[in-house]
Write a structure and sequence with these properties.
single chain; alpha+beta; 4-stranded antiparallel beta sheet; elongated
Length: about 140
């Protein structure tokens, strides 16, 4: 029994971390789908989709996303971000818009794993929301 207990104490946390990283990889893949759809709009000379309510796919993106694609994903929720900065970014007044995706999840370990996984410099967290800026204008 002692040996089984020791093995379980070692294996269970490692298994949980593997599951968390797999979920973070899934979220990263959904980012790629949304980012690709948004970039297709830009290539077609359309503007970036406007900021949307959390969990709602911006109407401009629907046609470019796979059928049935949703921002309500069970363990997490996506939020399209399009922030206008009339005065520009502090320190760089030429940046007038930030484009990104936020993830809201109550699973802190999932959010932190995602923060480690996404290689963007412009990322931040506030409470249960993890935001990733992938374009500026």
């Amino acid at each position: 029994m002692l040996i089984v207990s020791i093995v379980a104490r070692i294996a269970i946390p490692q298994f949980q971390e593997i599951l968390t990283r797999a979920r973070a990889t899934e979220i990263r893949a959904t980012f790629d789908v949304v980012e690709d759809a948004a970039n297709r709009l830009i290539v077609q000379n359309n503007p970036w989709p406007e900021d949307a309510v959390a969990g709602v796919v911006p109407p401009e993106l629907r046609a470019s996303l796979p059928p049935g694609f949703t921002f309500e994903r069970g363990r997490y929720q996506l939020d399209w971000e399009n922030w206008a900065l009339p005065e520009g970014m502090p320190g760089d007044s030429t940046v007038r818009r930030l484009i990104g995706i936020s993830v809201t999840t109550s699973d802190r370990s999932l959010g932190l794993a995602l923060m480690e996984m996404v290689p963007l410099n412009a990322k931040f967290t506030l409470g249960e929301t993890y935001t990733f800026i992938f374009a500026t204008q």
